[in-house]
ABC transporter domain-containing protein
Amino acid sequence: MKGAEGAEGASGAEGALLEVRGLNVRYGGFHAVRDVSFTIGEGEILGLVGESGSGKSSVARALTGLAPRTGTVAGPGPRGVQLVFQDPYASLDPRMRVGRSVAEGLPRGVGRRERPAEVARLLELVRLDPETARRYPRELSGGQRQRVAVARALGARPRLLIADEVTSALDVSVQGAILNLVRELRAELGLAVLFVSHDLAVVRYVCDRIAVLREGRIVEEGPVGRVIENPADDYTKSLLEAVPRLRLFEHLC
Ligand SMILES: Nc1ncnc2c1ncn2[C@@H]1O[C@H](COP(=O)(O)OP(=O)(O)OP(=O)(O)O)[C@@H](O)[C@H]1O
């Protein structure tokens, strides 16, 4: 539901896919996310950055109902937003073949007979051989496992993917391939992404805009180039100074 305030001049709010206003997350007496507001447009990739403990995962989890929240979240319904976590080792059931894990993400409307073809389509979408369906997670590399987790999330045909530190558990050599996959999925499916990461090099490579979170509040938000080249906030500057390898992914562009 759109707020009644109407034209308040917030850039991008018009026609936004997701509109978050005054989001708060409290764990008992601890106030982890404080009055956070942002929008994500159709097919847009918004980076959410900040140091450990700044509240990034709490925002991601609150948007998918996994953390307690107050505030307004207007956007796609529950199936329209899917979350992919940092650790594909933990998010895939080790006793389940990949095909079954991916099939679990499909809506009920997909009949039993259509499922194998749909699973194959999803595996191809994340650049995995459909034969991968017969394998177990332990037989795959970390990058392949993360692709399986993305395939499962895509089964619900989301309009927004929340990617929470999806490259952090991977070798640097594999990170770029997963980042390229995120960009390709946006181009092919028009998927919007909330890309949560502590790594500004990663965020710079994949995002259109970034929002910087500090102690639960957004201290700066804007186009990724502007925020990284010319940060307005001292905290953003200190985050940038802590990242010695900002150019890492440029060769992939
Ligand atoms: N379930 C919980 N109960 C109590 N406190 C929590 C809970 N989850 C997170 N917190 C606290 O909320 C704050 C924000 O945590 P959150 O995981 O959202 O931060 P983050 O920026 O994602 O950090 P990291 O990158 O280390 O995961 C931290 O101080 C954390 O200890």
